[in-house]
Amino acid sequence: MTDTAVTGNNFLRTIIKEDIASGRLSGELVTRFPPEPNGFLHIGHAKSICLNFGLAEQFGGRCHLRFDDTNPAKEEQAYIDAIQEDIRWLGYEWSGPIRYASDYFDTLFEYALHLISTGNAYVCDLSADEAREYRGTLTEPGRNSPYRERSPEENLALFTAMRDGECDEGSRVLRAKIDMAAPNINLRDPIIYRIRKVSHHQTGDKWCIYPNYDFTHGQSDALEGITHSICTLEFEDHRPLYEWFLVNLPVPAQPKQYEFARLNINYTVTSKRKLKMLVDENVVDGWDDPRMPTIAGMRRRGYTAAALRNFCDMVGVARSEGVVDMAMLEHAIRDDLDKNAPRAMCVMDPLKLVISNYPEDKIESLLAPGHPNRDDLGERTLPFSREVYIERDDFREEANKKFKRLVLGKKVRLRSAYVLQAESVVKDAEGNITEVHCSYDDGTLGEDPADGVKPKGVIHWVSASHGKQAVVRLYDRLFTHEAPDRGGEEFLDHVNPSSLTVLNNCWIEPGLADAVPETCFQFERTGYFVADRHEHRSEKPVFNRAIALRDTWGKAGE
Ligand code: ATP
Ligand code: MG
C-alpha cells in the first residue's frame, strides 16, 4: 500500500483527515521530528522530515524539532548543529524554539516519583545478566524480580539516592511495574531510569540518572501537545508502553503514535552507527563526503533539496518494509538537474587542437545558451581562439562510422562554435598524440557547411588560452553490493574501490571559475556537476560529479 503525492494521499493524511472530520483533532495538527544527536542525518531521516514537516504544512499545523537526547555519552553539539542546518537546507523551519527531551528531565523525574507513589514503579537491584534471565523469552513468560514488592517509601528513598549520586552505575535501575508475563516483552517491567555518571551536553552535571527513550518520548510528545507522533515501524511494539505511560501519568495531553516503514535504499546503508564507522575508519572523508547518503553528503554531491523532497514524495508512505531502488533516487536528481542546471563545458582528459588557419592573435566571443529550454538562464560567452582542448577520446586517427567524433581527414562540430576538419597529428617519442592540427570553416558558425555535408558529431571544447584549470571529482556509488548490510553481510567488505576518481588536469570554460559554490551545472556530454561547497574558489575550482547523464550503473559504459 504505497500511496504517493501523485494521488495526493497517503495513509497518514487519511488518518488526519478522519481525525479532523470526527473532531478528535479539534485544534492544530502538531507533529515533531525527534532526531537523536548521535550522527548526521541520512536519506531516511529526510523522508521523516518531509513527512512530519510536510503534513504540518499541508494541514496548516506546526512541526517541532526535538532532540531526543537521553543518551549523553553518544551525543555531541556538532551533530545538533549539523541537524539544524540539514533541516533548513531541505527547506523546512521548525515551529518555536529548538526543543530537547532534556528540557523535560525535571518533569520526567516528577513523573517517575508519581509512578513510585502509585505503586507503578520500583527500584530493582538485579544485575543486567540476572535481569535478562528474569525477562523470559518470546515464548516463555518472565519472572517477577525479587525487588518488585518494595514499598513506595523504600523505592522513593532508593530512587532519591540514585539521583543524588549515592549508587554505582549499573547497581540499580528504576523499572515500571507492569506485567512480567505480558506477551509483549516491552511491557515486562521495562527499565525507565538508569544511573549514568556522565555529563550531558545540555544539562551538564545536573543529573547522574537518565530516563530511557521509552520513558521520555511519549511524555515529551504529551508535554508539547503533539497530536500525531509519527515514527518508524520498529516502534510499533513499543506503542502499548507509550500508551501505558500516558494513561498512568498526569500528562497534559494524549498524543497518538503512528508507524510507517523506514526508507531503505539498495546499494547503501541508512544507519547512523554504520555511517559513523565509515567516517571513523576513514573509508570516506567525513560525514559530508559526497559519497555518503547523509543529507550533508548529498548536498555536497550536488543533489538539490527540491530533488530530495520530490524523491521522498515519490516513494510514498507505506506500512510495510520495502527497499527502494537507488536508480529512483538518481532519477529524481537527474530530473531536477536536467530542468534547472545551466549548461557548461569541461574537458577532463585534454588533447590540444591547433586550428592552423585561425589567425594566431584572433579571439572571438561566441555566445552559447545557458540552457537549451530555459531562456531565463540567459547566455554565456565562450572565448574562441586558435588552440582549444577537446577530450582525448573524442579523437581517433581512424575509426568506423559508429564513431561520430573527430577522425583524421573528417569533420566534427565544436559545440556552439565552428566545424573543423582534422588534418594531421603530432606525436611524442613514445607515439602518443600530443596535438591534432585542424582547419576550420569560418562560414559554419550556427550554419551548416556550404557544401551541404554536415558533420556527424558535436563535441565539447575549451579555449586553451582562456580556459581555467580545475579539479574534477568523479563520484560513484559507495557500495558495489545491492544489500551491503543485509543477511549478515559485513558491509565494509562491499565498499566500491572506485567510488572516487580525482582528475587534476581538467579545463573548464572561464566563466565556471567564478561559479558560486553549490551551483550545479550540466557539463555537456559528461554529467551533472556542482562547484564544491567548501573547496571551490576561482583560483582553485573544484567540481564534484553529482551524477552521470545516464544510468550506466552495472552496464558497460556508452
Ligand atoms: P539510525 O538507525 O540511523 O540511528 P534512528 O531511527 O535511530 O536512525 P533517530 O535520530 O532516532 O535515528 O531518528 C529520528 C527520526 O527519523 C525518527 O522518528 C525515526 O523514526 C526517523 N527515521 C530514522 N531512520 C529512518 C528511515 N530510514 N526512514 C524513515 N524514517 C527514519
Ligand atoms: Mg534512534
UniProtKB/TrEMBL annotation:
- Where the record places motif 'KMSKS' region is 269-273
Oligomer and partners = Monomer.
- Molecular function per GO: ligase activity
Q: Which family does it belong to?
A: Belongs to the class-I aminoacyl-tRNA synthetase family.
tRNA synthetases class I (E and Q) anti-codon binding domain location: 458-532
Protein name per Swiss-Prot or TrEMBL: Glutamine--tRNA ligase
Q: Which domain of life is it from?
A: Bacteria
- Which residue numbers delimit the Glutamyl/glutaminyl-tRNA synthetase class Ib catalytic domain? 29-337
Predominant cellular place of this UniProt entry's protein: cytoplasm
Q: Which reaction does it catalyse?
A: tRNA(Gln) + L-glutamine + ATP = L-glutaminyl-tRNA(Gln) + AMP + diphosphate
Enumerate the residues binding ATP: E36, P37, N38, H42, I43, G44, H45, A46, K47, S48, T232, R262, L263
* UniProt keyword terms in alphabetical order: Aminoacyl-tRNA synthetase, ATP-binding, Cytoplasm, Ligase, Nucleotide-binding, Protein biosynthesis
Pfam family for this entry, one: tRNA-synt_1c_C2
**Could you tell me which residue ranges the Glutamyl/glutaminyl-tRNA synthetase class Ib anti-codon binding domain spans?**
341-441
As annotated in the record, motif 'HIGH' region runs over: 35-45
Q: Which residues bind L-glutamine?
A: D68, Y213
